[in-house]
Amino acid sequence: MKLKEISLLLNGRLQGDPELEIHGVNGIEEAMEGEITLLSHKKYLGKLGKSKCSAVIAPLETNAGINRAVIYVKNPYLAFARLLEAFYPPKEEVPHVSPRSAVSESATLGNGVRIYPMVYVGDGATIGDRSVLYPGVYVGDNVKIGDQSVIYANVSIYPGTVIGNRVAIHSGTVIGSDGFGYVVDEQGKRKKVPQVGRVVIEDDVEIGANTCIDRATIGETRIRKGVKLDNLIQIAHNCTIGEDSVMAAQVGISGSCHVGKRVMMGGQVGVADHVEIGDDVMVAAQSGVPSDLEGKQIYAGSPTIGHGSWRRAQMALPKLPDLIKKVRALEKLIEKPGNNA
Question: Residue 60 in contact with residue 39, Cβ under 8 Å?
């Protein structure tokens, strides 16, 4: 692809030879001649100086220190993502249903479906047009999967689950397993509460590997459109995750929580049950959320407090030992006989 074509694709401003041929994309330290790389920030100019790349994508405000062809763009990461899409398009799947799969006679398969060996599709299930099921996928009875969705190897989708269009679910994930609900009976034994609800995953959701989303006790656990979930996340029964929210690895959401739109959670955030989190909230990694969070705020800590307050508290922590010594010395001074202070 010529540099002028890349610049047009990225809606960028080109400085350099427009006819320069680019045959690959690589990291700033790994890139070789004929490849283009990303300069996400001017602090990496030193690395760029040592790079063997032929061209670079850079922010508009970077106007010095680049000694090779450059495409200036408003959003370098977005431009880089689009460039990767152009150079490394998704694998084209050939429509085929493997004879080594087990597909119920009452299941409905759309046009252009690809089903690999060792896939099970249960009674009454529906697989949408051009969707792909990789080896070892289990699709329970009456599951509905929309168009152009990709279910990677060894995913389990329990009966009654509804999955929208253009959804990607990565290996080892379990959708629709029983919620964690028990009640103590007259003999003091824990009795399981039947989990008879379902999971609904809307369009354009991506779910990482080994994530679990539990079915509702009654009603729905719903993951709204555009949500992106990392690996090793637990979403408990009857939760709702709002549109375009993003959660990093090892987040745990307890039962009956409502997470608003465009919420961002760092790794290992834990949320107590029945919590409501407003729109546009950011929660820092390893935070514990015991109660509702107001929208459009940044939170941190366990229990969570405002991010500014948390930072001030963290800055004070190293001073505590000296402060304790000073307080004890003052206490002894006050307690001396004859001291009227």
Answer: no
pLDDT in tens, 19-46: 999 999 999 999 999 999 999 988 899 9
Query: What single string gives the DSSP state of each residue in 200-227?
Result: EE-TT-EE-TT-EEEPPSSSEEEE-TT-
- Residue 237 known to be catalytic: yes
Read off the pLDDT of residues 199-209 as tens digits, 9 standing for 90 and up.
999 999 999 99
Region(s) of the chain under CATH 2.160.10.10: 96-309
Catalytic residue among 23, 41, 96, 237: 237
Residue written as token pair 């249903």 = 97
Q: How far apart are CA 23 and CA 14, in angstroms?
A: 17
pLDDT tens digits, 91-123: 899 999 999 999 999 999 999 999 999 999 999
CA atoms of 284 and 258, how far apart (whole Å): 18
Is 3-87 a domain of CATH 3.40.1390.10? yes
User: For the domain 96-309, what is the CATH code?
Assistant: 2.160.10.10
Q: Model pTM greater than 0.85?
A: yes
- Parallel, antiparallel or unpaired: strands 212-214 and 174-177: parallel
